[in-house]
């Protein structure tokens, strides 16, 4: 899996535009409610048909942009022009409902706050300048008498009405800004988590690649001297047998040959463990075949109790078949080694939502929290020498994450351990990169 690449500017602009259209519907609804309350609740003399026409024009703009969105390329300029249009419509609404006396002039700040995050610098400064000019134009436009029942000298009544409107306008503007900033903050946190996860996965892939290179190099460099030691020890054993040397000496030579074979097996195992996860092609694999291949070459398979629902037998996961089988085999082998000889091991296949979990439960002593926290680190193992190199869980977790799944270990001292391997059903071999975070 390659590290996720941030989307192109056009793609980011499309995402931001889709989000802005949803927010504009909310603003449009809020404006309609305020006009209705002012005209029919407070009985202010507002040109309701004209204001309704402006709101209808704003709704038509939303619908037109939504229809156009699926056919055209969206740029940052598209966002900028739409926000300039919003400023112009807001200016018209304010000019027809009190001008500078309208406390809802604070809504200009909402548009400026949106532009600060969504637009590049040149468009942002243009929007700010246009907003200042639009606000300033209200001073020269003819104010509409929105309260004909109140005489001009009745400044106290007018002031109370204005202050009440300022409170409502502040609440609306502050609510939109808080909502917007909170969404942006959450999007940034999600993006940081995605980037951190991508960095961890990239580091693990680098470790796997380094391990494969190390194993291949070691196997290549050590194959000749190991073969030479094996041949020479065999010849020496024959010569000593002819010369009638004691059995103890010949037993030492046989031990040397056994250790040479052991070194070869270790190199082969390292090459297989590391190499299969990096070089094997991805293919669809039925779960029934995966379980069968995993248990086919396993010692102690008679102790494994398999629970595979018949409806999941033909369900497929996609990945490197041999590496997947080796991962499941390694989890079952770990469970067999952790359990007493008379205790069975459970292998359960459980369907999830668009995924499947292969759970391996042993009957061992379990792991304390400090050991469980380190389980899965490369070359960390609690097994006896010769029984493992501490790579199985590391490679299993790496492969699972590469396929878009996960490996989870749950253990309680005295109650055994459960290894849960989650894999997506019918998912592509490489997990898709995280989507662009949305405000």
Automatic annotation (TrEMBL):
GO CC terms in record: plasma membrane
Pfam families xrefs: HATPase_c
Alphabetical list of PROSITE patterns matching this protein: HIS_KIN
Broad class of the protein's primary localization: membrane
Alphabetical keyword list: ATP-binding, Cell membrane, Kinase, Membrane, Nucleotide-binding, Phosphoprotein, Transferase, Transmembrane, Transmembrane helix
A single GO molecular function term of this UniProt record: phosphorelay sensor kinase activity
Boundaries of every Histidine kinase domain copy: 217-427
Annotated source species: Myxococcus stipitatus (strain DSM 14675 / JCM 12634 / Mx s8)
Subcellular location: Cell membrane
Topology with respect to the bilayer: Multi-pass membrane protein
Reaction(s) catalysed (UniProt annotation): ATP + protein L-histidine = ADP + protein N-phospho-L-histidine
TM regions (residue ranges): 21-42, 48-70, 82-101, 121-141, 161-181
Matching SUPFAM superfamilies: ATPase domain of HSP90 chaperone/DNA topoisomerase II/histidine kinase (SSF55874), Homodimeric domain of signal transducing histidine kinase (SSF47384)
UniProt cross-references to Gene3D superfamilies, sorted A to Z: 1.10.287.130, Histidine kinase-like ATPase, C-terminal domain
Highest taxon of source: Bacteria
Entry EC no(s): 2.7.13.3
Name of the molecule in the record: histidine kinase
């Amino acid at each position: 899996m390659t590290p996720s690449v941030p989307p192109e500017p056009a793609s980011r602009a499309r995402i931001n535009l889709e989000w802005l259209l949803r927010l504009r519907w909310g603003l449009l609804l809020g404006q309609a409610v305020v006009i209705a309350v002012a005209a029919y609740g407070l009985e202010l003399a507002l040109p309701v048909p004209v204001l309704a026409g402006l709101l209808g024009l704003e709704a038509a703009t939303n619908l037109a942009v939504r229809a156009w969105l699926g056919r055209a390329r969206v740029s940052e300029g598209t966002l900028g022009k739409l926000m300039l249009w919003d400023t112009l419509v807001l200016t018209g609404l304010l000019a027809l409902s009190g001008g500078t006396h309208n406390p809802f002039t604070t809504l200009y700040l909402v548009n400026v706050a949106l532009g600060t995050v969504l637009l590049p610098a040149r468009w942002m400064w243009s929007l700010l300048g246009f907003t200042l000019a639009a606000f300033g134009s209200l001073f020269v436009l003819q104010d509409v008498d929105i309260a004909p029942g109140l005489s001009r000298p009745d400044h106290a009544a007018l002031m109370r009405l204005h202050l009440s409107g300022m409170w409502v306008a502040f609440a609306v503007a502050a609510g939109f800004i808080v909502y917007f900033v909170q969404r942006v903050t959450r999007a940034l946190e999600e993006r940081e988590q995605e980037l951190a996860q991508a960095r961890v996965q990239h580091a693990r892939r680098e470790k796997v690649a380094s391990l494969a290179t190390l194993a291949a190099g070691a196997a290549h460099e050590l194959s000749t001297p190991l073969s030479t030691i094996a041949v020479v020890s065999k010849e020496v054993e024959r010569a000593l047998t002819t010369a009638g040397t004691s059995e103890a000496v010949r037993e030492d030579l046989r031990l040397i040959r056994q250790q040479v074979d052991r070194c070869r097996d270790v190199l082969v195992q390292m090459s297989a463990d590391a190499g299969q996860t990096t070089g094997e092609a991805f293919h669809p694999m039925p779960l029934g075949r995966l379980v069968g291949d995993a248990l086919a070459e396993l010692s102690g398979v008679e102790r494994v109790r398999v629970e595979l629902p018949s409806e999941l037998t033909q369900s497929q996961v996609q990945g490197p078949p041999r590496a997947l089988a080796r991962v499941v085999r390694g989890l079952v082998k770990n469970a067999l080694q952790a359990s007493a000889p008379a205790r069975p091991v459970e292998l359960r296949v459980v369907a999830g939502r668009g995924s499947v979990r292969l759970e391996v439960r042993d009957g061992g002593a379990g792991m304390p929290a400090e050991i469980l926290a380190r389980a899965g680190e490369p070359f960390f193992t609690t097994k006896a020498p010769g029984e493992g190199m501490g790579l199985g869980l590391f490679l299993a977790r790496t492969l699972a994450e590469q396929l878009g799944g996960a490996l989870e270990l749950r253990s309680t001292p005295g109650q055994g351990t459960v290894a849960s391997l989650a894999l997506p059903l019918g998912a592509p071999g490489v997990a898709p990169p995280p989507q662009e975070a949305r405000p």
